[in-house]
Amino acid sequence: MSAPRGQFSSNIGFLMAAAGSAVGLGNIWGFPTKAAASGGAAFVMVYLILAFLLAYPALMAELTIGRYARSNMVHALRTIAKGPVSRFLGGLTGFGGIAVASLILSFYAIVAGWMVAHLAEPFASLFGATDAAQWLTGDSTARNLTFTAIFSGMTMVIIAAGVEKGIERWSTLLMPSLLILMLLLILYVLSQPGAMTGLEVYLMPDLSLIDPELMLSAMGQAFFSLSLGVGTMLIYGSYLSQQESLPRLGALVTLIDVGIAFTAGLLILPAMYVAQEAGTQIFSASGELIAGPGLILQVLPALFNEMGSAGLFVAMAFFALMVIASLTSSISMLEVPVAFAIESLKVPRKAATSMMGLVIFAISTVIILNFDALFGLVISISTEWGQPLLGVALCIFAGWIWRRDQLLMELKEGHEHIESTLFWKIWPWYVRIVCPLLILAAFAQSVF
Ligand code: PFF
């Protein structure tokens, strides 16, 4: 007999964990900067539509498969497969998910490490350690390795503690703190000169900018933001009790994720224009808004510096927000390979966590040592290729390979009178046909 499986103790616990996975750097950094760079509210509108029409149905496929099979992605997809060929494909897709989740974590931990270093910087300044402060915000290999290791260590400590005492407890503690910090920061930034221009850029739609490229970028963002394709939501679904309604919880996770991304825009864009008002360059030489690492690592810190001593506290609050958001996401990524090692390789949780955590840290190290060649490449392979392709595979497993009666039975668990809902009438067909086709269409466009 193997050890009993972990389970979330309540639906709130699941909600915090799943929303914690979804809400991350993708929401606070990726979404607002993509919106700023591609048409403000036009992007926001397309994103909202795609999140509900495409990402939510795909999320439901993962949650349903996970809760039914009550196991990691490899075993789950093999369980719902019918014959040897589909079992083989299930295993292949499952391993693909584990590989892509690990790759995402390997670059995510580097970026999150920058956030931890920037969080430490105001403390160093406060104590007059100027050299240390400079090292913390500099861009040395030693700094990157140190802070990636620290962040990976934090992730491993939580995962080693298990589903209820690790994932659920920390997500339930960190998610409300994230919201409070973000709201306080928004209030502060909106009271500063220049903020309203940023708000306008964010909220005034320029509909002429809606084109296939914008739709593709919005789809990629929605997939990344809802942590789809790689088995994170599948494994969290597998820890959920049969008494809860999947369509409702899935919708809530989507709403929270979209809501926080939207709210983060109310912080980041106004903050950029406040920085401009204070004399910081926010447009690149070619006239585009600085979006990538330059925004979080240069524009905003320059703004915090301008603010004098208040700036130290605002910087602490901002980078604490980023670290919290990253941590509730990174634990969900690490849980994917760890759950596989526990269930399929029969390794105890602590050993599984050390093993997988160290392998992923080794990949991060290789990326840091070959940053220019590998960083962008790993992001592109895992998020632009891996996630959408695996998303299609999961929809096909839910819609075509899995026995229909079992899928429908699982949906009914915990949801009385589901037969009268719109979800019941649409989703089982939608996930079979519309979802894979839409994802593939958008994907094909990016490739050809
Ligand atoms: N959803 C996270 C974010 O928006 O930052 C990123 C992420 C988490 C992607 C977990 C994939 C994953 F499995």
Automatic annotation (TrEMBL):
Organism of derivation: Microbulbifer flavimaris
Topology relative to the membrane: Multi-pass membrane protein
Keyword presence, Transport: yes
Entry keyword set: Membrane, Transmembrane, Transmembrane helix, Transport
Protein name: Sodium-dependent transporter
Taxonomic path: Bacteria, Pseudomonadati, Pseudomonadota, Gammaproteobacteria, Cellvibrionales
InterPro entries in UniProt: Na/ntran_symport, SNS_sf, YocR/YhdH-like
Cell compartments where the protein resides: Membrane
Chief localization: membrane
Transmembrane segments: 12-31, 37-59, 88-117, 145-163, 170-190, 214-237, 249-273, 310-334, 355-379, 385-402, 422-444
Family matches, as PANTHER family: TRANSPORTER
CDD domains: SLC6sbd_Tyt1-Like
